[in-house]
User: Fold AMP-dependent synthetase/ligase domain-containing protein from Cupriavidus yeoncheonensis.
Amino acid sequence: MSSPSSPTFANWPEGIPTCADLAGEALFARLAARAAATPDACAFPAGGMSYGELLDACQMLAGYMQQRLGVRSGASVLLSLDDCPQRAVAVFAIDRCAARAVPLEPLEPLDSLDSLDPAARVPTTAARAAIVAPASLPELAPLLDDGTLYGCIVCGNAPARPGLHDFAGALSAGIAPLPLIHPLDTWSTKHELA
Assistant:
């Protein structure tokens, strides 16, 4: 299992575990607690977003996925991003939706993240949405064309076509996440949603 300090996790928030050893506590709940305690502290070792900004970005992406792409509790979301802050935002947002992040290709570092289910190597046809780098688009184009995949959020430059959504645009849309109704959801029952 990789640790957050390894090169594969250079862009993972400090103080937030990446492993499934959280005693049933959701990954997003850990981020929310950290952001409440230290909202202005820098979240990433290399600088950039604060914990408060990271939490806001995750909530906006979660809201966009829920309300524009129909991602709901238990849904599968394909994920194919290199180590970057956007990958952390995506993983936390997927967890906030109570959905499963499923690596588009088997990558060991992604398998060690809490909200990823390594046993759930579902076929790409079972996923509702995807968050990917532009390089993954050729593989997903047939699924977008036949309507199997409802939408794809692209982190980077991508051609304009139906079903593609810009990562930065999803964050700037300002769509708040829906309240969760899920047996494992302890976060939304304890905190008021923005």
In short: The chain has one domain: 17-174.
